[in-house]
Amino acid sequence: MKKYMEILRSCPLFDGIGNENLTSMLACLGGRTAFFSKKETVIAEGSEADCIGIVLSGTLQIEMNDYFGNRTILGTASPSELFGEAFACADLKAIPVNVVAVRDSEVLFIEKQRIAHPCSNACDFHRRIIYNLLKIVAEKNLMLQQKAQITAKRTTREKLTAYLLSQAKRNNSHSFDIPFNRQELADFLQVDRSGLSAEISKMKKEGIINCRKNHFELL
Amino acid sequence: MKKYMEILRSCPLFDGIGNENLTSMLACLGGRTAFFSKKETVIAEGSEADCIGIVLSGTLQIEMNDYFGNRTILGTASPSELFGEAFACADLKAIPVNVVAVRDSEVLFIEKQRIAHPCSNACDFHRRIIYNLLKIVAEKNLMLQQKAQITAKRTTREKLTAYLLSQAKRNNSHSFDIPFNRQELADFLQVDRSGLSAEISKMKKEGIINCRKNHFELL
DNA sequence: GAATGTATGTTGAAAATTCAACAAAAAGGA
DNA sequence: TCCTTTTTGTTGAATTTTCAACATACATTC
């Protein structure tokens, strides 16, 4: 755990908790780390929502699959980010999504009970954590709304443009990497992969964008 | 306010707060009621996110509009339900949506500061309210994910079917009312209105569904 | 109850997506 | 390095959506 203290310090769940207190806080919260190889399932649809996850290394993807096998990517989780917190906080019986590791990843699981019920020591920080959690869940809400705004567009080009603009804004630059390959981007934008490839090519030819693999540039 | 005590008692924000305590709690939280006529804007995009709203009567709709005027309906809020809580909890400067009254509505606004900062009296219940709020925001998260699952479908028929099935499940019946007219349903499902009407007609002819206005029946 | 406005249904043409199949390029492993 | 696998790009046909225009049904108001 020592080697991931830096990650945990920057985890929004522990905002406002001093370095000294973080260690005791972590001891109090318990938690177990787990390693997942690339493509391995971190949380399977239908499993119990009793834990909140924190990404320590690697990248996770939150996906939904209908029963025709069509995938929808809801989002990604990078080091120091949380996942599964909404299901835990909503007291859901069964988790309705799949979480998979896009690359080798390490994860810290904390039981929601440990967060919900204040402990005897360190209780001052406990309240802070609840507030942080509330903010995190609310912010994830906004991300989902932003995704809705993107996928609400009716054409592949409009969706792609809206997404790229949001990424450029987020990175404060016209040049940035996206966390998706082509198939994943298509599953995020909810469009056909081949159609997406075609649209990207067309926009390149028109001189609107430039890209190579997952690096994009708005011109 | 007296006339709306029943509504407030069933508001999930006050879950676990006894009747006697609710009155003092409300006094402590402050808040102001406001009336909105049908079609009036309750919260305009860009305004400050310093309040949480509770619907006392009527129905509200949460919408987003891009700058071509295309509307996306994110959801509705009925009596005893909250709105705007995600923006307040995420400490957003500007609200990114419009909230409009679909019919004459009354609303109770509570400043987020009053909720975030514990008061001197009634503090036991204050903590309960924070937990309730966390659960509400998390549940709204799930609703957005469910909406994503519906709009992820590629054809109008698939979207409509997925939506109707979710409503049937929610109502525990094959026969139910939906909170949308045709245009609103189209804006929720993110499809063309005329195409939606055509699809509904076709499904009626095929004997799959039956409907009249906003009442639907799955056969 | 007549008139006006709004909501819904219908249609056909244009545009866009999806689908399937394959080619080319890149990545990974032996 | 060679071979295999995965990813990405390309294409054309079929399907579906969108768009515009109009007809009809329903509501509301005076």
Based on Cα principal axes, name the global outline of chain A.
Answer: elongated
Beta-strand residue fraction of chain A: 15-25%
Low-confidence stretches of chain A: none
Radius of gyration of chain A: 19 Å
Task: Kindly state the number of beta strands of chain A.
Answer: 11
Would you list the SSEs of chain A in sequence order as H and E? Answer: HHEEEEEEHEEHHHEHHEE
Descriptive report:
- Chain A has about 220 residues and is of the alpha+beta class.
- In chain A, α5 (about 125-150) runs antiparallel to α6 (about 155-170).
- The termini of chain A are far apart.
- Chain A has helices at about 5-10, 20-30, 85-90, 110-115, 125-150, 155-170, 180-190, 195-205; strands at about 30-35, 40-45, 50-55, 60-65, 70-75, 80-85, 100, 105-110, 175, 210, 215-219.
- In chain A, about 35% of the residues are buried.
- The interface of A and B includes residues 96, 131, 135, 137 and 139 of A.
- The first copy, chain A, binds a DNA duplex (30 and 30 nucleotides) through α8.
